[in-house]
Amino acid sequence: MTFASAVAALLFVAVAMSAIMQLAAWIERRTGNSGWIDVVWTFGLGATGTAGALLPFGDGPLARRLFVAALVVAWALRLGLHIAGRTKGISDDPRYARMKRDWGPEAPARMARLLQFQALASIPLAIGIVLAAHNPAALGQAQDALGLAIFVTGIAGGAIADRQLRAFARSERGGVCDTGLWAYSRHPNYFFEAVLWCAYAVIASAVAYPIGWFAWLAPAAITLLLVRISGIPPLEEHMLAKHGAAYRDYQSRTSAFIPLPPQGARP
Asked: Which residues contact 162 (CB under 8 A, 6 or more apart)?
């Protein structure tokens, strides 16, 4: 991948993600349900990543580009359909709803700015996909097999965590879900999402392809978003407000992100 093609890919990704998050802001205003923001983001990033993999930004052989595009499509369909199904059953996403209440009359403008920040933070994710797709090595390298294994682990782990949480909610037991993967991490779905994005970085990394190492910005960016910005912090705040002491107890014995053995016994 030349410097010019890298700049072209960066501009394509930036413009596409900005437009996608403008659409997300418009849909949120029209529906009043901020849950659709994450649906639009997932399918939008999936479409941008797929296009970036298939467009001729570099020297990646067609088989590799199709392989990476297939991974992106699988991720977007799995996560996007899950979030869409969840969003249809709620009136608003509690994370964004609290922000809108705090912002008051300024909520539409501040939401639009927040979503443009998310678009900016999404650029390393899409670029990671592009770099993986345009690694000039023939498909079938050891790193491709390792990347696929990491991807399968991430997508399967996220799906299992989501299914366990849905089953807990349907059981009408109430309280805090602390069974299955949720006994080892308060956010196992987020952890496996971060694992999944390591797949593109592994696929892109090669001694003969120096620019590919920049793909490691993708797992770094998604981990930062989930752990520090739009994932864990607002969700933990919501869960504390909803469950109080029960959630504080869960926090005291369960890792926030990386699955680890729980500390102490359940009450």
From this structure: 82, 189
